[in-house]
Design goal:
With about 425 residues, this protein is α/β, with parallel strands linked by helices. It folds into 2 domains: about 1-200, Chloramphenicol acetyltransferase-like domain (Chloramphenicol Acetyltransferase); about 215-425, Chloramphenicol Acetyltransferase, CATH 3.30.559.10. Helix content is about 30%, strand content about 25%. It has helices spanning about 1-5, 40-45, 65-75, 110-115, 170-185, 225-235, 250-270, 285, 315-325, 335-350, 415-420, 425; strands spanning about 15-25, 35-40, 55, 95, 100-110, 145-150, 155-165, 195, 215-225, 275-280, 295, 300-305, 355-360, 380-385, 390-400, 405-410. Strand 6 (about 145-150) and strand 7 (about 155-165) form a beta hairpin. The chain is globular and about 60 Å long. The protein starts with a helix and ends in a 6-residue tail after the last helix. Mean pLDDT is about 85; it is low at about 130-135 and about 200-215.
């Protein structure tokens, strides 16, 4: 299909053409007392990298672009840091100068349905994301948000939104999307609440991403149907005298961690310790008033260490995940959460022998991405693009029909080839 046409002459040709670009600014100026947004400790800990999300809308037409722009402009009055600029890796604030969000439009040389049905579209989704930052690590760019609307030849569009991790975690991004969509429909969304930090609080060094060696990484999507996960749940329950009754996220996380570490062991021929890093939303733990509208980075990490990558058991991983979650319950505010995270990472500093796997989940009733509706229907598919960093990453999302979990996995190419043949994984995966 599309991939065959693009590779007809032995290389990937350009699928998109940028047809317009402009800056969308807040509809009302940011008040003077909010012009400097001091980053919380957790914000400073976050890297200034973008992870674009692409929404595919079959009923979108060109006339609706003006609605998107107008509602974005109105939404930026509440999400005012998004329209500002981050001026350097060692800066502890965002300049909320209302410079605006870059808004691009592109024409795509493909039919909408052909693109949706393309099995290898992970290879070409890069052409749908904003070209300024995209997913690259660009510490010199000051932009925090970019949007690209991609128009297909037969109607329909892919709306890509790229937001820097510096201004928010996954919950912040989803709340922003819902706010924007509500404004587009003429609704009255709940406004966000940004955590305001004083200058004296900002003592945590952030991650500075410098030139990164390009390793041969690849990404692959795996779909785990609920029916298969129920089988896996029964298997895990049988491993202990008292059933653990693991959640779907616990099941997929532990299985992919075990199989990915196993693939690395097979490739290298030696077993090494492996760490699982799971991002955890802290809003309900440390925000007392209306935690769901708290914006920014309000997440920390649970770290699971397995000493022998060749002897990982699912029930052991799940038990350690739950123990780590329990330990987070004593944290009282963002500063304590940041300090706890820093101390955990400091203990791991200099350990180059342990393999690391970072997991994030957007599977939650409070993160209804497939319910997003700007007024022309819900998306039929959503794709996420990992930033280009040297890291083994896994992102979990609900499938469009909510009948399973979709995992976007990023590994080194040789390890991915091994993973895709792992019978322990294939037993629970649909249509690999």
């Amino acid at each position: 299909m599309i991939m065959a046409k693009l590779q007809k002459f032995g290389r990937m040709r350009q699928l998109h053409t940028i047809i317009s670009r402009e800056l969308v600014k807040p509809s009302s100026p940011t008040p003077s007392h909010l012009k400097t947004h001091h980053l919380s400790l957790l914000d400073q800990f976050a890297a200034h990298i973008h992870m674009p999300i692409v929404f595919f809308f079959p009923n979108y037409n060109n006339e609706q672009t003006n609605i998107l722009k107008k509602s974005l402009s109105e939404s930026l009055t509440q999400y005012y840091p998004f329209a500002g600029r981050f001026l350097g890796p060692h800066v502890n604030h965002i300049n909320c100068n209302d410079e605006g969000v870059q808004f691009l439009e592109a024409s795509i040389d493909s039919r909408f349905q052909d693109f949706i049905l393309e099995k290898e579209k992970e290879e070409i989704v890069d052409q749908l994301i904003p070209s300024g930052l995209g997913c690259s690590v660009d510490v010199t760019s000051s932009n925090l948000v970019e949007v690209q609307v991609n128009h297909f030849t037969d109607g329909g569009a892919a709306v890509a939104v790229s937001i820097s991790h510096k201004v928010g975690d996954g919950f912040t991004m989803v709340n922003f999307f819902n706010h924007w969509a509500s404004v587009a429909r003429g609704g009255s969304p709940i406004n966000p609440s940004f955590i305001l930090s004083s200058i004296s609080d900002t003592k945590m060094p952030g991650f500075v991403l410098k030139g990164i060696e390009k390793l041969n990484y690849t990404r692959k999507r795996f779909v785990f149907p609920n029916s298969k996960l129920n089988e896996l749940k029964m298997k895990v329950n049988a491993m202990t005298t008292t059933p653990m009754n693991p959640t779907r996220v616990e099941l997929v996380t532990s299985l992919l961690f075990k199989c990915a570490a196993g693939a690395a062991t097979t490739k290298s021929g030696s077993s090494k310790p492996s760490n699982l890093f799971l991002s955890v939303n802290m809003r309900n733990k440390i925000i007392k008033n209306v935690p769901e509208i708290a914006a920014g980075n309000i997440s920390t990490m649970v770290i699971v260490n397995m000493a022998d990558s060749g002897e990982i058991k699912l029930n052991d991983v799940i038990a350690k995940l739950r123990k780590g979650m329990k330990e987070l319950e004593g944290l009282r505010d963002v500063q304590e959460a940041a300090g706890d995270q820093l101390s955990r990472f400091s203990m791991l500093a200099g350990d180059h022998e342990t393999r690391a796997y970072t997991f994030s989940s957007l599977c939650s009733s409070t993160l209804p991405l497939y319910e997003l509706d700007f007024g022309w229907g819900k998306p039929v598919e959503i794709m996420v693009r990992f930033p280009d960093v040297n890291d083994n990453c896994v992102l979990l999302m609900d499938t469009p029909s909510r009948d399973g979990i979709e995992a976007l996995v990023r590994l080194q190419k040789e390890e991915m080839a091994i993973l895709q043949k792992d019978e322990a994984l294939l037993a629970y995966v649909e249509d690999i």
